[in-house]
Amino acid sequence: MPIWVHVPPERSEAQMPIPKHIDRQTAGANDSPLPSLDELRCIVPLAAREQNFVQRASDTIKRILTGEDPRLLVIAGPCSLSHLDAAGEYALRLTKLARELEDEMFLVLRAYIHKPRTCLGWKGFAVDPFLDGSNCTAYGLRATREFFVSLSQIGVPLAVEALDPLVHQYVEEMVSWTAIGARTTESQMHREYASGLAHAVGFKNPTSGKLQPAFDAVRAARSAHSRIAVDSSGRLTQTVTAGNPFAHIVLRGGPAPNYQPAAVQACAEELLHNALPPWVIVDCSHGNSQKEAQRQVHVFKECLRQITAGSSPIRGLMLESNIFGGAQKMHEHAAKLIPGLSLTDECLSWEDTEELLCAGAQQLRKRRLERITLDRQPLRIQPPAAQMPRLQHPDGTA
Fold first, then answer.
1. CA 175 to mean position of chain CA atoms
2. What does the longest C-alpha to C-alpha distance in the chain come to?
3. What is the reported pTM?
4. Which residue segments constitute the domains of the chain, with CATH numbers given?
5. Strand ranges, E, within the chain
6. What are the tens digits of pLDDT across the range 243-282?
């Protein structure tokens, strides 16, 4: 059983598991030192067994994208991780459900630790883990890594947004799928960073709803680049990427949704026109649900209808889901926040999520069994009756 990293909202110095080299009084101040990736790896290593698990999950997602694995990829989880004990409970539930639905779906935990803001707001657990503006990022990075290692130990595949590549690289080796968000899809830095990742990367269309910037991003990420980066020792370096052949697009809507059949098909055709494989993942939240959590149910069902109808380019679906449905506003007293209730976008409740996924898996199973039945039927080909040869008696009569 994993040990979840639990931070009491009201804490004393003795209660806080902050590394000794971190000064709590100055951790959130300007120019606070952060551990390098190598230093954090020494404190929180990822064992070979967990590395193999992450690689297997990454390979499975790649096979789903190419169509070698016929299952549906489903990325579900909180809009953002805020309370790791609640996130751990959600992960356990998702893992149990994943085993039950594994013949039809491959479930991945949405584990976003760094959040983009339209203007201002809480920026995520990795940078402000105590939810109070103290910005104890050194602790947030360590706690995040400990949490992700524990999830890998129980077999939970992870999906993370790379909002800041410098933050993302602290957990990159534990991630099986990465998102580049709507606000950063047009960023050259993010495109070049994605080109060097070993796992699949999904680029969301911008908030404008336009698709061409996302197509450009996918093409750029699939190409090689020379970029300036920070290596695992914390030193600036020049690195050359090989290009990521598993970069793809995520339809997240905009001012108008883009999950409908015509929009999905048009996206697939434009991908082919741009010499890109027609792999599509649909985000059931954000612009496609107009940020109303319950509308995700309709979007999910409509996409599933397209998939079961056959010949759909949709390879996966994304859901924002938490233990409790809805959302809460940030409070000046973190102790008054409810673990398991979203601090950012509205989420589906666990009960609604489980019901939706189970019903969806049942539809996919029905389609799979119908195909097996058709494949097993003997092939009988007969020429039209008018062309059937007439048998003749040896004496020449018909």
1. 9
2. 111
3. 0.87
4. 37-324+340-366 (3.20.20.70)
5. 72-77, 105-110, 158-161, 177-180, 200-204, 225-230, 236-241, 247-251, 280-283, 314-320
6. 999 999 999 999 999 999 999 999 999 999 999 999 999 9
